[in-house]
Specification:
This protein folds into three domains: 178 residues, Alpha-D-Glucose-1,6-Bisphosphate, Chain A, domain 3 (3-Layer(aba) Sandwich); 228 residues, Alpha-D-Glucose-1,6-Bisphosphate, subunit A, domain 3 (Alpha-D-Glucose-1,6-Bisphosphate, Chain A, domain 3), CATH 3.40.120; 134 residues, Alpha-D-phosphohexomutase, C-terminal domain (TATA-Binding Protein), CATH 3.30.310. The protein is of the alpha/beta class. The protein starts with a strand and ends with a strand. Helices cover 32% and strands 26% of the residues. The longest helix has 15 residues. Bound molecules: alpha-D-glucose-1-phosphate-6-vanadate and cobalt (II) ion. The site of cobalt (II) ion (CO) has 7 residues, from loops.
Length: 548
């Protein structure tokens, strides 16, 4: 087998976004496009000779082709070993787990998360470093810089290899280990949670004699993990995991676990004879949505509940070091941290900003409003982990999801919260909306909006307390004296046009006011956000695409 140095030319636009490089499949299918990016990664990450690389993806269309290319390029570039999930499958949290467990140099994860999949839809790739987490901005910028200068890439000339049989083989002097994608992850979950207690709950011996749950894998990567753990190790009845067969096009769906896209699960939990607990995960298995019987838990509240109840769970019984949330995430967890005397960090959007805090043992739990929750057990957000955490809490407290939330709000107050997404809007119009708000930074403070006084306005910037790196322009904020917030951000994960995210938050201490619908509670904030920004006039939209 011969190493070939293939000459190539740079492609424009290979800058990783919030979570890696995401483009249409047709873009990735252009000759050299994937190869250029992979070589740029290898050229930017230091000396990996003699080390291992982890490779796997969410199984979407083009996953298999990409795996073959990466294996041949890893061999040609001098990795000593590649660990690849059987069939090319590894959920994002499982990839993080495997990188850490086997001390790999890093990993390439193939996913566009919840973005739709198929020949006309999206594909993605991102590099994770040796701690198992997404590469920090310094590394992603170095990769991008390299993509603009690349002249050739290295690849082995050979037939495709078989990644469907578990076992080891050699590829041009590099060892390839095809591993079970589930077992290392399942073992880690067993080390964190009380599986006996959850098993008792699921078999009806604990909370009530008819406790039941449903998990919607949305035809994406979590299916095999959820089946093995929830139906297998924890003994839930067959069929508890819905849509558990991963498909290359995710069954034509949009595997984003929210109230809009996970409607099959939502209908079940809001229907007659609803289960006590419902959960869903996304395309690559790192997001989660938590539902009770006729009850929705916002991701921001979920993080706060996990933090407040962490010591009930074996893996966290000794207490947690601190918590972190992304800036747009509600401050519900901040209130828990204050009452527990924990440090609380506010980071820009994207999991890459949590890694340093976890490596430095400053935080144990972190989360984002976008249905992402996780801990220092890996360095990615982890959908199934959050579900097991909730099940463990339910098994110990023997109360309903709703009762746990009402009790939580009673203790800490309620942070009414909502996110309005305007998807696929014109990019220039989206930029104008944010600029329009920025232009009022000088005049808004001190004025009244939505019956509240504006305290300050800014473009959110973050200085990493561990390595001192600075990230600017991470969201336009209007901050009120009573702690309420209106935030505008542009998505960094889309593949066409722009998506404006409008985040709204308002705190209510009085428990007699905790039963409102979030849209009603925030109605004046929503109206003010539109007045200030002229969002709807500038984009020509009269309502959001998705409300969560
Ligand atoms: C979105 C979310 C962000 C999340 C990111 C990756 O980014 O808002 O919180 O970290 O997706 O999640 P953006 O830039 O579109 O707002 V995943 O599950 O897509 O890897
Ligand atoms: Co995801």
């Amino acid at each position: 087998m011969q190493i070939e140095a293939v000459s190539t030319q740079p492609f424009e636009g290979q800058r990783p976004g919030t979570s890696g490089l995401r483009k249409k499949v047709t873009v990735f299918q252009q000759p050299h496009y994937l190869e250029n990016f992979v070589q740029s990664v290898f050229d930017s990450i230091g000396d990996f000779a003699g080390h291992a690389l982890v490779v796997g993806g969410d199984g979407r269309y083009f996953n298999r082709e990409a795996i073959q290319t990466i294996l041949k390029m890893a061999a040609a570039n001098g990795f000593s070993k590649v660990l690849v999930g059987q069939g090319g499958i590894l959920s994002t949290p499982a990839a993080s787990c495997v990188i850490r467990k086997y001390g790999a140099y890093g990993g390439l994860i193939l996913s566009a998360s919840h973005n739709p999949a198929g020949p006309d839809d999206d594909f993605g790739i991102k590099y994770n470093i040796g701690n198992g987490g997404p590469a920090p901005e310094g590394v992603t910028e170095a990769i991008f810089t390299r993509t603009q200068k690349i002249e050739f890439y290295n690849i082995i000339e050979c037939d495709d290899v078989d990644v469907d049989q578990i076992g080891n083989f050699e590829l041009a002097g590099m060892q390839v280990a095809v591993i079970d994608p589930v077992s290392d992850y399942a073992e880690l979950m067993q080390s964190l949670f009380d599986f006996d207690a959850i098993r008792a709950l699921l078999s009806g011996n604990s909370l009530s004699d008819d406790f039941s749950m449903a998990f919607d894998a949305m035809h994406a990567v979590t299916g095999p993990y959820a089946k093995a753990i929830i139906e297998g190790l924890l003994g839930a009845p067959d069929g508890t995991v819905m849509n558990g067969e991963p498909k290359e096009d995710f069954g034509g769906g949009h595997p984003d676990p929210n109230l809009t896209y996970a409607h099959e699960l939502v209908d079940l939990l809001y229907g007659d004879n609803a289960p006590d607990f419902g959960a869903a995960s996304d395309g690559d298995g790192d997001r989660n949505m938590i539902l009770g019987n006729h009850f929705f838990v916002t991701p921001s509240d979920s993080l706060a509940v996990l933090a407040a109840n962490a010591t009930l769970v074996p893996g966290y019984s000794a207490g947690i070091a601190g918590v972190a949330r992304s800036m747009p995430t509600s401050a519900a967890v901040d209130r828990v941290a204050t009452s527990m005397g924990l440090d609380c960090y506010e980071t820009p959007t994207g999991w890459k900003f949590f890694g340093n805090l976890m490596d430095a043992d400053r935080v144990t739990l972190c989360g984002e409003e976008s249905f992402g929750t996780g801990s220092n057990h890996v360095r990615e957000k982890d959908g199934l982990w959050a579900v097991l955490f909730w099940l463990n809490i339910l098994a110990v407290r023997k109360e309903s999801v709703e009762a746990i939330l009402l009790d939580h709000w009673q203790k800490f107050g309620r942070n009414y919260y909502s996110r309005h997404d305007y998807e696929g809007v014109d990019s220039a119009a989206a930029a104008n909306v944010l600029q329009n708000v920025r232009d009022q930074f000088g005049t808004l403070p001190g004025t009244e909006l939505a019956g509240r006084t504006v305290a300050s306005c800014d473009d959110f910037a973050y200085t990493d307390p561990v390595d001192g790196s600075v990230s600017e322009n991470q969201g336009v904020r209007i901050l009120f004296e009573d702690g309420s917030r209106i935030i505008f951000r542009l998505s960094g994960t889309g593949t066409s046009g722009a998506t404006i995210r409008l985040y709204l938050e308002s705190y209510e201490a009085d428990s007699r006011q905790h039963g409102m619908d979030a849209q009603d509670a925030l109605a004046d904030m929503i109206a003010s956000a539109n007045d200030v920004s002229q969002l709807q006039a500038l984009t020509g939209r009269d309502k959001p695409t998705v409300i969560t």
